[in-house]
Protein: O-methyltransferase domain-containing protein
Organism: Triticum aestivum
Amino acid sequence: MAHVQAENEVMSADDRLQAQLELYHHSLAFVKSMALRAAADLRIPEAIHRRGGTATLSDIASDTGIHATKFAHLRRLMRVLTITGIFSSSSDAVFKLTPVSRLLAEGGQSSCNLSPVVVGVFVNPVAVTALLSIPKWFTDERAAALSLFEVAHGCTRWEMAAKEKGDSSLLDAGMVADSTIIMEVLLRDSHSIFEGVSSLVDVGGGHGAVAAAVARAFPEVNCTVLDLPHVVAGAPANESIQFVAGDMFEHIPSADVVLLKWILHCWQDEHCINILRRCKEAIPSRDAGGKVIIIDMVVGYAGAASAENVSMETQVLSDVYKMYMDGVEREEDEWAKIFSEAGFSDYKISPVLGFRSIIEVYP
């Protein structure tokens, strides 16, 4: 108690007031996510885009079907979205798209519309509800034996997916948009990782956005996408890609390169080791050009390791977010451990994709 009193005496009234401000700011941070989700659900960015990138509050209300009684509340929502940088606004209440909100609008760059990622992945009620159960998961003996998802929802995420049999089109669209942005930069700055490759299999490649980008840039590469049967069944026809239905835990088709984009962070170490062992079985020796390419986070590696750095903060926030589905974002030593246990001899990290890195892993 004396120690606590001493700390309070050290803090001046102004210090406490500033600390209070920061505490409340952190506590209200979730409102930014909720406001962003509301904007995506209401298609506000699309409404502004259709008017040439600039719209008044009345324009937005009219184009999105906002009820007349909620006009004043729309202004409050737009104020939050403007202060946080989603939109910009002039003094006469004219709202404009920013680089961030351009990624939420259908139109000229519809293939890069990330609204499905906001709505279907990050600001997802299933995930948010699960994260509210973290204290119980950390301390309750019965809860400790379960996944965070099971604690919150009473079943595994796979059981919920099977029970609901929901349409996965939202997630598929989001992953296509994410891959389009990633591959544009990867093929511009790191295209050499595919040079000399004659065949590639994209594991968990969904509707083939990554494989299609590689095939366009390197027509000589035979590109295959491996995913679950229901995913492959819904994939669009593409003559440059072969789609194969299967389970990455059981078998991966043979190729010079196996690519895993945003796959391993969904799984605990033992599952990742199993997947990587299947990858090792699928590729030739390093001398023959065999390797695994992983596009995922290496926490603390991309950008300066600072809490003030957007990349680093995004990485650690994503790591806690991944708890809800029993996944994990890894630091370099954690990646090295699973590579070694899966039987690989070496790896190389290139942090060139914003908050994600390219990891080349060699047998």
